[in-house]
Amino acid sequence: MQPCPEPVEQQPQTQAKLPFQPLLLISPFFFWGTAMVAMKGVIPHTTPFFMAGVRLVPAGILLLLVGMLSGRPQPKTWQAWLWISIFGLVDATLFQGFLAQGLVRTGAGLGSVMIDSQPLAVAILSLWLFQETIGFWGWLGLAIGIIGISLIGLPDDWILGLFNPQLFTTSADLTQLFNSGQWLMLLAALSMAVGTVLVRWVCRYADPVIGTGWHMIIGGLPLFGLSAILETQQWQNIDLSGWFAMGYSTIFGSAISYGLFFYFASSGSLTSLSSLTFLTPVFALLFGNFFLQEVLSPLQSMGVGLTLVSIYLVNQRDTLAEKLKLKRSPDVAPSQADANFLQAAEGNEVELPLEIPELEKKPSTSIHPKL
Length: 371
Hints:
Order of helices and strands: HHHHHHHHHHHHHHHH
Shape: globular
Helix content: over 70%
Largest sheet: none
Structural class: mainly alpha
Radius of gyration: 26 Å
Distance between the termini: 51 Å
């Protein structure tokens, strides 16, 4: 789920008063990454749809309580409820449903990398729907991301067979490919990407925090319904550590992480948060290896590295383009500005003040800010 950013002009001075601000800034991504590990650890003792519903509905209630205590308005128009409902079905029901089902078949770290590839899909949707410029760095990131996701999601035999046909085997057929956890995670990432685009319409009619809380509840209820119809023994085999893991995913991985994200987004640090997105799969990979002993193949490890690079390039494409522009401009701008000034002065297009003794005694080509 991708929260709706509030205007960055709000509360510009709040961040400076926070102790341990760098740790708090990183904490949402730490919680999201470690929540993937916690969910993977408890999935053998519960069912996917039930676990997804538990992560959404209680977290949505907590967000609504916080929003009401802070005086945020409830949705009042049918347009607000319509867009919140659509947002909930796509960004909560589909996203968390695919995520939970994908965790059954893949590791927490690998799944987190696939989930956090959604900025690649967001960039394409934004180009298509809103004509947003991707630029050189964005296209480069998309190309690298496609290669990285292919290395993660396709069977190793297929990839090695491209370079050595003798190594290619037919053991991995299309049914196995599309039933794999990697592709379910990719569907989850696409759902999250569409939800990110839908946020623009939600913000037009509803408060972002309240809207996010309601969309968690609206999106979580169908998951409980699917669990009641299709699943059995949802909670009977969960031990104390399992309930602790689910509580951690709900409270820290959903409610608190989104609350912190909203706080920093509303106080002007949305750009910093975007640049930290790639930390989520890094935390998931580290803790997945430490607690669950998840090991990636060499090709998958290479794919993870390329995907993280691509996510960074897509998220930071504007910043990288601006830095490149600033590096080039100082070498050209002063001489060009001086040339324009001299040309205008020779054509009598600029009238200098009558008394400028400094210029009469010591001519200079520097430009006064008011000219």
